[in-house]
Amino acid sequence: MTTPFTPETLGLRWGVSATTIRNMCNQGDLIHFRLGRLYRIPAAVVEEKEQCQTSASDVSEVAIASTGTKAASEDVISLRHAPERRQSRKR
Question: What residues does 38 pair with on adjacent strands?
């Protein structure tokens, strides 16, 4: 039996912060269980999620290469630029 991941160890494995892992758990994107205040993510869930991510990216790369268009999973996010703030002068 493998030990479950903590948000910190899973964050290191996936290259994200522990807060991101906790947010994924709270939003229902990642199956987990709680021991008091502690989050634990089963290793089987992590392996399944990683397997799904790699197979989905393989499919989208093939679709892009064959048709020359973007895959449906690639959403475009439009960000607006905020003007820079002027610094006040101290007198």
Answer: 35
